[in-house]
Design a protein that fits this description.
Elements: H1 3-37, E1 42-47, E2 58-63, E3 66-72, H2 81-99, H3 104-113, H4 127-144, H5 148-158
Parallel strand pairs: 1-3
Antiparallel strand pairs: 2-3
Length: 160
């Protein structure tokens, strides 16, 4: 290669590097701005059982992109884990429902018309999501040393 060809090659490579750098900066800026806009805030709040929208120990609602979970305070809670377990169950169930096209309205309509433990009914529109959330809840309970029989008894005491 001649010196002129090397100089031209160096200029071309510099132009390509500048272009790639500029594209990278644009993509990074887009990523940062889209990340800020799409962040979901998840709130899990413990409330008095009588403050629930209906007779349930856990309830979830989306507020635009934010997820709000309310769990009933359990008076006999084992180290505060009972509320945590309910909150995790509701979190998993809500995210799976949203991801798989089960609406909050479908869940509310079903829950309000199907009595105690509505998610355990195989006809339930969120049956699969509820069961997966229950499996995760039970695995976590086991890892935390929670007695599942005492846990269920404590939850059932709150039902009206």
């Amino acid at each position: 290669m001649t010196n002129d060809e090397l100089v031209q090659l160096a200029r071309d490579l510099a132009a390509i590097a500048a272009s790639v750098t500029q594209k990278y900066r644009e993509m990074e800026q887009m990523r940062k701005s889209s990340t800020k806009e799409n962040k979901m805030k998840i709130t899990i709040e413990t409330i008095s059982h009588d403050k629930q929208r209906y007779d349930t120990v856990g309830d979830w609602q989306f507020d635009e992109e934010n997820l709000n979970i309310k769990v009933s305070e359990i008076p006999t809670s084992g180290h505060g884990y009972y509320e945590l377990l309910i909150g995790i169950h509701e979190l998993v169930e809500a995210i799976l429902c949203k991801n798989q096209g089960v609406t909050e309205q479908q869940v509310d309509d079903w829950d309000l018309t199907h009595g105690k433990d509505p998610g355990n009914n195989p006809e339930c529109p969120y049956y699969r999501q509820h069961l997966l959330a229950t499996v995760i809840e039970n695995i976590l309970a086991n890892e935390l040393g929670v007695d599942l029989i005492d846990y269920e008894i404590s939850l059932n005491r709150l039902s009206k």
